[in-house]
Specification:
Elements lengths: L3 E7 L3 H12 L4 E4 L14 E3 H5 L15 E9 L4 E7 L10 E3 L2 H14 L3 E3 L4 E7 L2 E7 L5 E9 L6 H5 L11 E10 L2 H8 L6 E8 L7 E7 L3 E9 H6 L4 H10 L4 H4 L3 E11 L10 E2 L2 E3 L15 H21 L4 H13 L1 H8 L3 H7 L2 H18 L6 H32 L1
Helix pairs in contact: 1-3, 1-9, 9-10, 13-14
The structure holds flavin-adenine dinucleotide.
Length: 431
């Protein structure tokens, strides 16, 4: 007879490992299945890991986890071809306990995190692909893997298999994601000496910077580029919705080369050597794309459930909280030995009551509105750059004349009413 577990978790990313860790810590018999050579081997992230949600799983994890730098400054750059408008927030407090967020390299972090789940008693098997869920009488009762005699059984199967989530799809929980529901992102880890990073970003060894870059970095398409500081490397990447890429006929690797060559960005990466090249999808459909989250004997977590806040580039934290909430739901269900959809529905309620549901709801129309109205990225960012250029160039033109020229540049194409409507529309979707 094949062995039976309380929980089988598919995928050892932040969602799956959080679930495995919490379940095992509370005495459940857990099997964590990962297709990679080790957890993190295939995982991709720009690199910002949020302290709060990780700490809810492992208190004071920063004393032990392989982290890069605590982020003390968040910069935002709005690029035109040869200029940029910038804003930033720097807080020395973020460089001290309990910190705000950290840069991480997933290959190191995920491996360490999964080892903590194993310490709690979870069984981890790597290099094993879950091919399908085993369904009996409409209930998920286990998984079929690519190993010989590879069927394993459990009271609950937790799907934490990431954005593609073929398993949730095959259960009929969602259809193929549409091109506007996912962003295609490419990134490089580039080696650069610590001292050079510190000088270029104006930080010391224990401080990091995150830079989010809009406008010309995506050639006006809906998306962003990013530049994050690790200890002795930089993460640089760019992504747009798949539909944006298709519409603008852009190739992701060409877009990344464009970003690396941009005159506002190039000086920061000058002399850095590419160590790794990575590409991945990010689920960006938001609130309206969240699929069915529970069924009889099954729960969907993290990217597999579209739990990403694209506006604030928060995904790993939502994945962790969803994994933890899945574990807590299973612990409750175990008390009554009832793993039906009705009992597991506690998870769905918990997700929507948490910051995940609330934040996704707040921005529920944002992606759609920005996608349907390309003027925000295509027109307004270059106009903002030109307005700054006009205002700050000392050429003898009286300031009032400059002001009216700037206003005309904004209203010229869309009219005052058009600009007012755009402002109102943008405010409504982010308010
Ligand atoms: C370029 C990029 C930049 C990002 N930047 C940030 C950021 O800065 N901050 C942030 O918070 N979020 C960021 N995100 C989002 C974040 O990476 C995800 O939201 C998060 O990783 C989701 O975690 P997860 O556990 O749900 O899925 P994943 O991390 O994708 O993990 C899924 C796991 O399942 C395994 N798996 C898949 N299918 C199977 C199978 N059939 N059998 C066995 N194993 C399987 C995979 O190998 C993988 O280990 C970024 C994403 C990308 C692509």
């Amino acid at each position: 007879m094949p062995e039976k577990f309380d929980v089988i978790v598919v995928g050892a990313g932040p969602a799956g490992t959080s679930c495995a860790y919490t379940s095992a810590k509370n005495g459940l018999k857990v099997l964590l299945i990962e297709r990679g050579e080790f957890p993190g081997a295939k995982n991709v992230m720009g690199g910002i890991l949020y302290r709060k949600q990780m700490e809810e799983i492992i208190p004071e994890f920063w004393k032990e986890a392989p982290l890069e730098r605590p982020v003390v400054e968040q910069r935002f750059w709005f690029l035109d071809k040869e200029s940029m408008v910038t804003t930033s927030y720097k807080a020395l407090e973020w460089g001290k306990e309990p910190f705000n967020n950290f840069t991480v390299l997933r290959a190191k972090f995920d491996k360490w995190f999964a080892s903590k789940a194993v310490e709690q008693g979870a069984v981890l098997i790597n290099e094993t692909v879950v091919l399908e869920c085993i369904v009996e009488d409409g209930k998920v009762v286990g998984v079929r893997t690519d190993r010989p005699d590879g069927d394993v059984y459990a009271d609950v199967v937790v799907l934490a298999d990431g954005v593609n989530s073929l398993l949730a799809k095959s259960l009929g929980f969602h259809k193929e994601w549409k091109p506007e529901e996912v962003a295609l992102t490419v990134m490089e880890v580039m080696k650069l000496p610590k001292k050079v990073i510190n000088e270029r970003f104006n930080v010391n060894d224990d401080q990091g910077v995150s830079v989010e870059i809009f406008g010309d970095s995506t050639k006006g398409a809906l998306g962003t580029a990013f530049l994050y500081t690790n200890k002795d490397s930089l993460n640089i990447g760019v992504g747009t919705t798949l539909s944006g890429m298709i519409k603008k006929k852009m190739k992701p690797y060409e877009l990344l080369e464009y970003v690396k060559e941009h005159p506002m960005i190039k000086p920061y990466i000058d002399g850095a050597e590419t160590e790794e090249y990575l590409a991945h999808l990010i689920p960006e459909g938001g609130y309206n794309s969240v699929p069915k989250l529970v069924g009889d004997g099954v729960i969907v977590t993290g990217d597999a459930a579209q739990l990403v806040n694209a506006i604030h580039r928060e995904g790993s934290n939502m994945a962790m909280t969803s994994g933890r909430l899945a574990a807590e739901t299973i612990m409750r269900a175990k008390e009554s030995e009832d793993y039906s959809e009705r009992t597991l529905d506690y998870y769905r309620t918990a997700i929507y009551d948490s910051f995940i549901g609330k934040d996704l709801k707040k921005y529920k129309d944002a992606t759609h509105v920005f996608e349907e109205n390309p003027q925000y990225f295509e027109q307004y960012i270059p106009l903002m750059n030109r307005a700054m250029g006009t205002f700050f160039t000392v050429d003898g033109t009286p300031k009032r004349e400059k002001q009216s020229k700037i206003i005309k540049s904004f209203t010229g194409k869309n009219g005052r009413l058009g600009v007012a409507k755009d402002l109102y529309r943008a405010w409504r979707v982010v308010k």
